Structures
1.
Amino acid sequence: MQISIQLNGKKITEEIRPDLLLIDWVRQHGCYSVKCGCETSNCGLCTVFLDEKPVLSCSILAARADGRKVDTLEGLKEEAEEFGAFIADQGAEQCGFCNPGMIMNAIALFREIADPTDDEIKEYLAGNLCRCSGYEGQLRGIRAFIEYRKKGGAVCDK
Amino acid sequence: MLKIREYVKVKTLEEAYELNQKRSNRILGGMLWMKMSDAQIQTAIDLSGLGLDQIEENEEEFSIGCMVTLRQLEEHEGLAKWSSGIIRESVKDIVGVQFRNLATIGGSLFGRFGFSDVLTAFLALDTYVELFKGGLVTLKEFAERERDNDILVRVIVKKTPGRQVYLTHRNTKTDFPVLAVAIAAERDGARVVVGARPLRAMCVNVDDAWKEKLEHADCTPEELRELAGELAEQVPTGSNMRASAAYRKHLANVLIRRGLFELHDRFAADTGVDMDKGGQQNAD
């Protein structure tokens, strides 16, 4: 079947198998930040934006994204790098495996809630699992980023 | 691994219904549970082009298209207001935002899954499902039926005045519930719904005399404990890897009791009743 998806701003039209998952499709197009972690829709590692909303690319068919807009970490470079620096400052990455999915969903959070409370941060990021850190480092990084943004330092607002 | 040979984004419900009569074809909801299976699907039927992804509200009811996501349910202010917040409460711990942006109400209810928070919460409300061929049936009746090849088109929630509470117990925060309890006292009666038993959610009606006492915030703590015990006794429970039947039975009593105390407190707050008698939230 033929699909047409706008991936990171570039329209791609091609033939695919009907059961091709979106994660496999974006990786075929060089988006290697999108990784397969649990394969059970639980870890958040494969998070991409579908029409600006965070979704699990391991759990949706590429066919469902036909005619829509998909963004990965590769397409959010400036935003992602800016926020990622705050995570790195806290040493929160450790092994770094969960980081792309965590950054994607944190950016979705910042776009949706301008000044989230700790409870809102924890609730929004509950679907992103990290097995190294216990999440404290990420929480500190997010708080620091929000403070920085309040002082007018971030480009992340849309 | 899930295999799909053909994919059809249907243009009408009639087309979807006809395709769905073949056993090897399947309608896709959010696809999150189906994706975990090894199903070999001849034709996957996609309803996402039919405009069934909206929540419409009028003076009498909410009409929720089958492709509405759990995240849309969670964020809908009108539903939150009319359900005492239990719709949001019931979905907020389902994995994460990314999951809830995909999972649909149609898939959640059509599957009638034993673990379903969504089925438990909606059963507590005055809810109907609109089936393409079967017409309008109560969610309670639908939940008791076996799966067939009809299509769940919309979910209708009547704006029946009342108060509701929702409680769950989970071993870990984003896991399936070990037990889920929703309690509603509405104009047409009071009921307790127990889900994740781990069998399909079931309804137990509360006697009208008890309902009246609850609504007048006129129960003592002892009476509420007694009522919780009676209701919990009527709920069969089973065992699985999350918990034993005995543990679930104990939990049912505890969660129903907590729910009744919370409901009682809310009615007391509504009527301005002094809660010396029965309003103290039970701490256990």
Note: Chain A has five helices and five strands.
2.
Amino acid sequence: MHKVLKAAIPVAAFLASASIASADCGATSGRVNIVGNEFPAIKTVAANAAKCATGSLTVSSNLTANHQKINLPGMQGNPAEYTSAIIATSSIVALMNDNVIRPLDALVAAHGADIPKNQLITINGKVMAVAFMANSQHLVYRKDVLEKIGVQPPKTYEELLAAAKIIREKGLMKNPVGGAYQAGWNLAQEFVNMYIGYGGEFFKPGSAEPAINNPQGVAALEMMKALSAYMNPDFLTHDSNATSAEWKAGNVALMSMWGSRTGVLTVKEGNDPVVAANTAVGAPLTVGGGKIPATTLWWDGWTVAKNISEDDAKATFLAMKNGISPSILNDETMGQAVWMIKGYKPAPVNEGVMQTMAMGAKPYPMLPYMGLLHTAIGDGLAPFLAGKKDAATTLADIQAAYVTAAKEKGFLK
Amino acid sequence: MRHKTFLAFFLPTATAMFLFIALPIVSVLVQSVHAPHEQVIREVENCTPFGCTKSTTVDQDATAALRADQPLGRFVGLGIYGDRSHLAFSELAAAWAGSARLGDFFDRILHLPFYRALAFTLTYMATVTPLSIALGFFVALAVNAIPRLFRGPVIFVSLLPMIVTPLVGALILFWMVDSRGIIGAAVQWAAGDPNLSLKASTTLTWIMLIVYGIWSTAPFAFVVYYAGLQTVPQDTLESAMIDGASRWERVRYIVIPHLLPLTTFMALIKIMDNFRVFEPIVSFNAGAHAQSLSYFIYSDLGGETRLLSSAAATSVLTIGGVLVLLSPVLVRTWRSFGRA
């Protein structure tokens, strides 16, 4: 409930401010209603889209951590409740699978000539979304703690484990490693990262048959278990919010964390001054001697609903374009994300994501059935980490659970 | 009552029951024997800010044609009920054939999601129902015995768990049992193991959920029993006292038999409620260690990939489970109703 409340307050504030600062976005009438996740960068985009509102053009938004549960039902109606969903690499697939978002080629040709090519997400030759930021998980570390033990910031998970061991042995921290290992989506994401780091492929080429029950899968699981031995014993209930809270409390010195969530760890307001001053970001880690970092690259972008009138589609396109125009970048918004917007200058906290891109990290797989595998992984890993199942059985059970779901959904016969 | 009056009285209720209970159940039944169409997958090229890759996508035109042909989806009969996420017949057979001892067999079965959820659901129901009723009964007896002056405040305190919203109550406890919380730290101190965590151990998580269940539902039993205690015939109690019956004998031979119909009624409601246990698992974030049938439906319905047929089949199985569990109590009620 508190998440909904938290989402509602800034939305109400945007709506109030929208009428004051009106921008000329080129659209005069229509209905724009945005649904999306709730973090600072997306709030900025929604607030700037809301500036397009005029007497006959309404702009409203619903930003909530529950966005993935409501965006699809909210776009299936005709007319759709939401005219735009802000989505990311994985969540666009659910909207594509159900055919609720429209190709943007005509709108880009008519009103979006100035949007740089690399921001256009093209699927099967059609523009389906416009990206505005990049995100990834990468190393976050405490400078002061590493200095105390005389260790350089780790470049591999093996080095991270060695550093964690020293920190614990010297009595500096009981559980120096952090990780968003909450059973479910977060835990599955950690596996996806680690498995990619070991060079694994998720499916047999060109098919929906799963292929994670292999030596790379076992190695990824063993590494996750080794890391969890240095985590707060409640790690299976810690999502990225709880992990950040552990960090702010000064209980953690090393973790792999989302770029979009590191900004709040380094600011002075509301933080322990020692933690804030010594929080630094580094490149994502590699594992098992691999070259590709054990992480995935993500983009966040916006879409336009299929089941809305042409007028509303045009209004939505123009409002969202204004939401990500170079004019939104200022001192406050610059550090909120790795913006793919002209004029963006990376702040020090964005360094991790920039390095992730430079190291050639793989994007999260955009496959119609990846969500099913992700869910099966998230449901199936906890018994292994709790020590109740061996790695091979765990992976076999996950594959079996995925196959059942994929058969029901019609991806496998 | 005349038939016309009866109809006028009953018809609106019957219509509402038909519209809001019977029809949805039929729709869930229909959903559970259908699955989405076979997906037509095409290889495509996706371009993102990080370059272009070969990928696959769902062919929307072909899918639309399939949907127009068969709007309900593929008919799969009882296929969903038998698959690995539900009753898992072939996995059961394989486990039976592949295990030498009965223990092995149960071990393997508990790797299957449905049976794991059923195991927790039944354990929870079988412990929380009698214990919360018993606790409520003893609190009611105690409150009934204290001087009138103190009854008001004591009743208020006893009802607190029911007044606090389940989600809020569970959240408070969630923080208390955290390894840095007061209960969690106390358990670590008592066990002498600094790495012990209530949230990390399956057994401790189950115990925690069951204790929470008893704590949060006992007030209901207390209220009902307290009301019932006011109706115990005083003359019978007094004559028992004259005959020299002890306090325990009075409770055993007069109060408990008198309250038996109430107990049946309460057992009926509690079994139904506890079989649908859901909120504590969500608010304690206990999905990793304990799943119930309702939690299962919830996770199938949410998330990026909705498994509606799977959720429908689990719902039908849950309804079936409630009916089976209630049948002894229902039969009993029916008989005593017939006797009266």
Note: Residues 97 and 327 of chain A are 34 Å apart (CA to CA).
